[in-house]
Design goal:
The structure is a homodimer. By secondary structure, chain A is mainly α. The first copy, chain A, folds into two domains: about 30 residues, no CATH class; about 80 residues, Orthogonal Bundle (Arc Repressor Mutant, subunit A), CATH 1.10.10. Helices cover about 60% and strands about 10% of the residues of chain A. The first copy, chain A, has six helices and three strands. A three-stranded antiparallel beta sheet of chain A has the order 1-3-2. In chain A, a hairpin with a 2-residue loop joins strand 2 and strand 3. The interface between A and B is large, with 56 and 56 residues. Chain B binds a DNA duplex through helix 5.
Amino acid sequence: MHLVPPDRANRRSIDGHRVCEAIAAIGDADRVRTWAGRFSLLADANRLALLFALHRTGPLAVSDLAIATGMNDPAVSQALRLLRAAGVVERHKEGRVARYRVVDEDIRRLLEHCAADTG
Amino acid sequence: MHLVPPDRANRRSIDGHRVCEAIAAIGDADRVRTWAGRFSLLADANRLALLFALHRTGPLAVSDLAIATGMNDPAVSQALRLLRAAGVVERHKEGRVARYRVVDEDIRRLLEHCAADTG
DNA sequence: TGCATACCTGCGTGGTTGTGCAGCTATGCA
DNA sequence: TGCATAGCTGCACAACCACGCAGGTATGCA
């Protein structure tokens, strides 16, 4: 197991074998970035509240989300735009009402993970 | 179910009943903030890589973590200080070597959740 | 005592992000 | 045509954060 990249192979290590284990545990850098990106989307209390509501209640309109969370409309709109750009939610327009729902399965699982914690 | 706080009870809603469902789904604001805080800790790729390594490999020294992740020592040290302040990791000093391990059970479960995804 | 190692800290910086405000578009109704 | 509603966008501001660099503390060895 010589997993240490050549550019840092000359550094002295404390527990040599564990470094390779650690590198194996970290795995692919893209995978780490992907997960960090997902967590980043959930790292804001307002966005998370929106996702909790959308996940358990189904399609919801922007102004209803604003009432439920106490945010004002532009803030909700911008948060949803960000989530939509990330592919987490989808928008369905009916007349002048836009309803959003969660479509990302990985995010759904994380939201379920939260829900399992405290009802 | 009149869960809408009085300060926003006068706003017009699209799907009135769903607003209450949404508020119920969001639940306690402190719970949402707590989860958002956890996700925030995992939202950085470097910190997440450190946690992956610590979670699967066990106690690791700072310089070994630096080699494994490609970060330099101060960056590792600062990331671990942040995680320690949040109660996620603990430090055990042996001579001049400081080894860290993950002690927060909620974070461990989230890390397991990630590991279950792609080996 | 001198020196190298392991780790920590302070400082300054650049980048990112959440927010409020104001204003815009588009739909529906009278 | 006029007006209210639902939603979106741009801009400016402030706050935060991760990072690199330089320097400091503490341990262990010769």
